[in-house]
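Quick one, T. Sequence first:
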Amino acid sequence: MSLTRIRLDEQPGFSELTALGDDGALARTAAHQTLPDGKGTTGVWECTPGTFRRQVAQAEYSYIVAGEGSFTPEHGQPIAFKAGDALYFEANTQGTWDIRTTVRKTYLILD
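C-alpha cells:
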C-alpha cells in the first residue's frame, strides 16, 4: 500500500498568481503532484475574490480549508460553501465560481 502526504513546508511554495476571468480573481497552486498510480493529481489551490468559469474537466474532490463562496452549476442553483465543507464535482461539471473571501482548498483531480 502507498500513502501520499501533502505538506506545504516540504514544497517550494505557491506558484505565481494567474488571472481567472475578467473581474480580478487570481489563483495559485502549491504541492501539485501526480498520484503514485498515475490516476490523478492532488495539491492545494488558493483563489482571491471574483467570479469565473470552472476550468477543470475531470472529476474533482475538494476540501475547503479557508474562505467562502459559491458554485453555480450550469442550469442549477448556487451551492454555498465555506471552510470545513467538502465538494465533489463529477467529470465535465460546468458552472461558475463566485469567491467572496479568499479560498484555500485541497484537491484531488481524478483522471
